[in-house]
Amino acid sequence: MTYGKIDELAINTIRTLAVDATFAANSGHPGAPMGMAPVAHVLFNKFMTFNPKNPDWPNRDRFVLSNCALMRAASCRAGESEMKLNLRGVMSWMKPCFSQLLRFSCVNFIIAGLFLTIPRSSAVNGHGCMLQYALLHLFGYALSMDDLKHFRQVDSITPGHPEAHDTPGIEVTTGPLGQGLSNAVGLAVAQAHTAAYFNKPGFDLINNYTYCFFGDGCAMEGIASEAASIAGHLQLGNLIAIYDDNHISIDGDIKCAFTEDVMARFEAYGWHTQWVQHGDTDLKGIEEAIAKAKEVKDKPSVIKLTTTIGFGSLLQGTGGVHGNALKADDIKQLKVKFGFDPEKTFVVPQEVYDLYHKHAAEGAAAEQEWNQLFEKYGSEYKELHDDFARRVTKALPEGWQNKLPTYKPTDPAVATRKLSESVLEAIYEVIPELVSGSADLTSSNNTRWKKAVDFQPPNLGIGNYAGRYMRYGVREHAMAAMMNGMSAYGTIIPAGGTFLNFVSYAAGAVRLSSLSHQRVIYVATHDSIGLGEDGPTHQPIETLAHFRALPNMMVWRPADGNETSAAYYMALTSKGTPSILALTRQNLPHLEGSTIEKAIKGGYVALEDKEANITLVSTGSEVSLCLEAVKTLKEKYNIKARVASLPCVEVFDAQSKEYRLSVIPDGIASMSVEVMSTLGWEKYSHEQFGLNRFGASGPYKDVYKKFEFTPEGIAKRAAATVEFYKDVKPLRSPINRAFLQLI
Amino acid sequence: MTYGKIDELAINTIRTLAVDATFAANSGHPGAPMGMAPVAHVLFNKFMTFNPKNPDWPNRDRFVLSNCALMRAASCRAGESEMKLNLRGVMSWMKPCFSQLLRFSCVNFIIAGLFLTIPRSSAVNGHGCMLQYALLHLFGYALSMDDLKHFRQVDSITPGHPEAHDTPGIEVTTGPLGQGLSNAVGLAVAQAHTAAYFNKPGFDLINNYTYCFFGDGCAMEGIASEAASIAGHLQLGNLIAIYDDNHISIDGDIKCAFTEDVMARFEAYGWHTQWVQHGDTDLKGIEEAIAKAKEVKDKPSVIKLTTTIGFGSLLQGTGGVHGNALKADDIKQLKVKFGFDPEKTFVVPQEVYDLYHKHAAEGAAAEQEWNQLFEKYGSEYKELHDDFARRVTKALPEGWQNKLPTYKPTDPAVATRKLSESVLEAIYEVIPELVSGSADLTSSNNTRWKKAVDFQPPNLGIGNYAGRYMRYGVREHAMAAMMNGMSAYGTIIPAGGTFLNFVSYAAGAVRLSSLSHQRVIYVATHDSIGLGEDGPTHQPIETLAHFRALPNMMVWRPADGNETSAAYYMALTSKGTPSILALTRQNLPHLEGSTIEKAIKGGYVALEDKEANITLVSTGSEVSLCLEAVKTLKEKYNIKARVASLPCVEVFDAQSKEYRLSVIPDGIASMSVEVMSTLGWEKYSHEQFGLNRFGASGPYKDVYKKFEFTPEGIAKRAAATVEFYKDVKPLRSPINRAFLQLI
Ligand SMILES: [Ca+2]
Ligand SMILES: [Ca+2]
């Protein structure tokens, strides 16, 4: 391939669009986009196969923008936070849920009876984002030039639906550093798995590549190191990363903090490495390096591309072009230098459109061909074909939910982490897209069904790429980000385990699961001081409060077997909402009053007493304790109590007010009981019994006793609560609010 | 040095103590301690200088146990969570605070008037911890054999005060993987800085080494990669890490997830690497490697030590000895094999005591000599001597607080991140132990005073080791853990900046700042949707709720200049409590009613009105909005309102009930206003106005308007709140509780 004027023109078009956009925004990151325009041009035009008219084509090549300035660009993918729970139960016994169908497609809230509706924002866009949008625009994705010019305004109709994951051509929500590269590893895992699972002789159905740009910022982040290490171990030959070696980060020259040999490090991880020294101009070198990387099938590849940040600017090669828009004079000289009219903005020469549209047409033809292949595949492998076709709709197989285990109160006490294992064991065959795993805690998290095959490179002799069990190693943060990528690929529902306390290590990526609406399941065992001997460094106190405060996250803390099944039901059917399942290490009895039907409402009455003086509101391991405390309260204090189990407050919040008041009624006091931070429980109770300090090490029963999480410890506090509220009239349930929240 | 029977005996004593302890505990991690006993013996006996009678001797060598099994061992350092705020104001205008002196030295709570006192737990210990305690015991630290045998019981009087940082001989709280190695980097930074700052010709006052054991688990964690990268960059010649290469992690053979070349990776970071192939037996090889590592002055060193996990057990070399105690039969054969009486437990031959006590005596002599040197130093460098002597007491210089800037309402509006910079600029000269820094966001975090010198290896030409400004790179998690280590060293108060949203990346280490009582300051700028254009990926929603739920953490969100100064006053004077300062990107006016004296109470009345119908409770950027809303409320709704500013709820909680009720009084409704998750605000208000969804990108004023964070938006909700509560009698302040929390 030789390169000529047209290529130069296309590259300079990208550069000037980036410059114009950041100037218009009066802020942003023009530098890296300007430096990376040549490789973007070569990659998108010569290598990547995609159809702008159908951004969801399953076998498209994936592109992830992870690097610093470009990455902040990609923050534009940020979206709304509406909870998208699937309350549309398909099981007959879930019919009562039909009426609860959530529709937060606009932001509703009520003020003293007045209903306001704010239209959904669509303008959650960064400036640099403009670059990626510019590329997408040039190729003919559904992004008009006018949209591009106005995308920064709050509530503007910018390209890309406010549900960010719908933005055509953008694969994953990045922005926070290191996430994109880790997402890319997840996308590559998903590709390798999907190919191994579905491809057949003559049907090379899935063979796409995943490309990723990353910079020094990403390279410094621990999450990216974790992801690069596991990618090397997994020999992901379909992953090609391009490292923008521009020597500049926000603090200026990277020699202030970053003098390691990045390529040597990637080699140590098992990557294939190359270096293109003249990344600003050597298009042929770039092409050859990518072509070579594609040929390396048993290793991920990284190409170090030495570029000049802000290429063409008077400030090129300095930190001055990293975080600030160029000055008007600088833009003028740059446009003249690039052969553009210095007086015009947002200019795209027709021949650039033509070149890019031609490539887009080739992509459309490739999809056409693929569709025919897939149809033929259907005639030979009907079951696999139908499975694949179903998966990409995010629908689960008909009747899968009938496999969910149910329990009677007479069944033996079991830890919810074991109950979680029973769910996985029961459903793994009917939900083939479920890919489980753990961050080196398999036997503690109970995340692996007995017949599971590990997802491993076949040459290691310990699994294969069709395997559905991931060994993430001790890499919680990368695990979470990889799961975001795996979910985004479209053919996998990832579940990954660690201790609840160490989900905090992954907080950066967990947040993006929520923001980008990924159906990811965090299996978070050892959920409280109930883990006992490991002590305070492992005992969560703040963790549930943290993730309950995170929008669009379901935090489940089931109390028994039926609630555990309910948690999985909701986690699996809520297509755009991730879940954290907080599970016990210790055994719990099955509750008298629990059913899946009740528990999928997020909260229900576990023990009713119409004459009760108090409602005990509780979750997980403390619900059965509360049921015991009811007896103590009656016997010792002559107080009647009822118990509400609230395994998931986010789902409970989505029920009708009438229902919620039936669970936590007016007229009597209420007290929450959860053996960790009380923060937030004031929303569901008048008083709170919890643990606003670190825990203690010891056998768990001793630890519970130490902090008075005993029937007596609960009862005396409940008695104090009843006494305290007896003079308050009217005594309203905390469910009643003067106005509703912005959610 | 030659090794003989006595060394073998000592090593096997350590091994059998570890075995006995984990057997007595019926759980734990005997494997790695058994494998690492030889190197521990050589290191502690032949290289490390320390005085067991004075574990605080400043120039002692530091040892950090970071690796997997040993590390979980070290989880025993977990401590209580009492808030140790220094409300003992030393400024005359802080006198009112004297009466507020907090004393949570036992866990107090009140139930309906009944006062209970639970003795402080001292048994927050893991099992494997026994190994490190065993070593300390052998050397003569204040740990009796009887204490060792009983250390696992809840509420037992185990060695080491429940305030974990007081446990003699243990330097940092580790447990969660990767933290220890990163703490060690921080300790090494602190050593290099302290040496460069205080050492003079003829006075090599500070020349200690930092040693760290780490394993595969740590090596996989991103935080450890970050820390190792910056350690290489910083050329920390005083840091020697020993990598326990035992091929085993919890999931079994590490080849499931970890096949990279760890030593090549460390070389890429700039470390000096060595390999001792027979780590179980080659004591001479171990000694030579450590000696060589000590000679390498311009690089951190790592020694890969190939060991057999569970050496001596029938299950040696397998995952079976990683997480479980050995069986009784196995222990018997092991003791016979090692020449110990199989019927006896917790045996220490006298000659082992003698050997270790001899080394301890040498350490005591070394301290003696150092003390003389330090005294002589005092006669030649009195100022430096006194500075050093003061620093180690954690006391600040007399009168420093008079430098804190104060503001009048007529001063121009300034962003609190800039006000934070003004504080640093004002105090850096009077608090020489303050070492600031940023995770590659210096110009955004405003963490660098103008004349700051970077902490850098001198040969890079961009700073020196006496420099007080850290360039952490884009490594938030390692930054936090390094700051924990720097604080633990004893001569530094570290402050480090990043965006508030990315403090979440560091959550694992931030939690340990709290648990281990480190005086660490997180300068967390861009604290809300007020950051504007960067959008939802960068706009914190759940972050403050998360860290407010974390015990022993002060979360400050100052509203203006005086509150910012107050936040620094409390952060710097609270010797055992870390702080997060959440600071705005946007400008804020100075409040009419703010003073440092008021703000250090954590909450105060910013605008009083004795006839008010409602209290608006707010923080940071929303306080001035509330003051505007008061006018709207009066004009449009004829409602009188008062405003309470609560810059730090943790400190506010520590005030007397009487005071708190004066801020949020009985009889009128209250509404919180904070532009992020409402979770937790129910504790201080009847209704909450916040943002329980992700934000939006755009100029910040537009974003505030979109979500109705305007005087009108606040006023109409306040009006709804007043209306809603008008029939409730008595209308109690939420400050009133039926019983107090466990803190
Ligand atoms: Ca860069
Ligand atoms: Ca290991």
TrEMBL record, chains A, B:
Binding of substrate, residues: 29, 322, 417, 444, 526, 534, 538, 585
Active site, renumbered: 476
Entry's cofactor comment: Binds 1 Mg(2+) ion per subunit. Can also utilize other divalent metal cations, such as Ca(2+), Mn(2+) and Co(2+).
Enzyme class label: transferase
Chain ranges of the Transketolase-like pyrimidine-binding domain: 414-590
One BP term from GO: pentose-phosphate shunt
Classification via Pfam families: Transket_pyr, Transketolase_C_1, Transketolase_N
Listed EC numbers: 2.2.1.1
GO molecular function, one term: metal ion binding
Keywords in alphabetical order: Magnesium, Metal-binding, Thiamine pyrophosphate, Transferase
PROSITE patterns, per database record: TRANSKETOLASE_1 (PS00801), TRANSKETOLASE_2 (PS00802)
CDD domains the record matches: TPP_PYR_DXS_TK_like (cd07033), TPP_TK (cd02012)
Classification via SMART domains: Transket_pyr
Transmembrane segments: none
N-terminal signal peptide: none
Sequence positions that bind thiamine diphosphate: 127, 175-177, 217, 246, 322, 502
Family according to the record: Belongs to the transketolase family.
Record's subunit section: Homodimer.
Name used for this protein in its record: transketolase
